[in-house]
## 1
Amino acid sequence: MRWYGDYLRWLYRSGRPNLLARVQNWLSARAFAAGIMPSRVAAVGIRGRRSGRLIWFPIVLTEFEGRRYVVSMLGEKVNWVRNLAAADGRAILRHGRRETVRLVPVEPESRAPILWHYLQLAPGARPHIPVRRDAPIAEFERIAPDYPVFRIASGR
C-alpha cells in the first residue's frame, strides 16, 4: 500500500491541496455533511479570513475521554487553521444535522493521546504524520507541537 501513501502525499505535496484533492475534498465534504457516511466523519465550515465565504471541507472526528476533537493532518500552516484563528474558533459542523461549534485549541502537551486515536481512525492522514500508528505514545509527544488539535465545544 506504499503507492496509496505516495498518492495521498502527492495530493498535498506543496502543503496545500492540488486540484484533484480540492475536488475530492469538495465531494467528500458534501457526502459527509449529508450524513451518509460513518459518524466519525463530518464536514466543517469556517469563514475565509479574506473572502468571508463559508469554506467547507471533510474531517475525521476523534473521540477521546468523552470529548470530540478535530486534527490538522497537515500541521499549523494550512488555510483552515489560519481561517479558524481569524474566526475566533467559530465553525459549523455537519453530519446530517448542522451544529454551531467553537473549535478550541488543545495545548501541545495534551495532544499525544488524541493524535494516537486520530491515526487509528484516519487512514488518509497516516502518510502526512511522521509516526506509525502503532508507535509508542512518546513518539506522538515528540510531534504533537507540529499538529494542531482542536476540542469541539458548543458554539453558544
## 2
Amino acid sequence: MFKLSEIKELIKLVDETSVHELEIENEGTRLLIRKPGKSEIVTVQAPVAAPTYTVAPQAAIPNPQAQSSDSGHTSVGETKEYASNLHKIVSPMVGTFYSSSSPDTAPYVSTGSKVGEKTTVCIIEAMKLMNELEAEVKGEIVEILAENGQLVEYGQPLFLVKPE
C-alpha cells in the first residue's frame, strides 16, 4: 500500500518533469499517474488478493420487503440467505463518490446491472485524482449504497452485488 505522502511526492515529481506517465507496482498494489490531457482518469487498482467482504444479515438490508419487487413476502430465513450471498464493493479510500464520468452522462451501473470483475462501477475522487473502482466480482448489482457526490470513507460499502 502506498502512503499518502509518497503519492503526493510522486505526483509532484511527475508534474515537474517531462514524464507523462508513471506506473508503479508495490506489494500487489498498482499506482498509475498520468499528466492530465483531455479529461483523463487516473486508475488505482486494489491488490489482487483483496479480502472478500460479506454482508451482515439484517444490518445491511434493514427492510427486505422494500428490496424485493417480485413478491412482497420475504421470511427472516430468506433475508439471512439473501444477505449472506451478497458481495460488498467497498471504497478503497476516502473521497467523493461519483456514479458517472461526468454530470451529463449515464451512471456506470444501476440496480439490476450485470457486472464483470473488470467492470467500472464508479469513480472515487481523492486529491483531485479520479480513481475508477472496478466490481472485482461477476454478478448483478442489487443495491447502490452511496449517493452521487457523497463523501465516502475507507472501507465504506458502496454496492451490494449478487455473485454469479
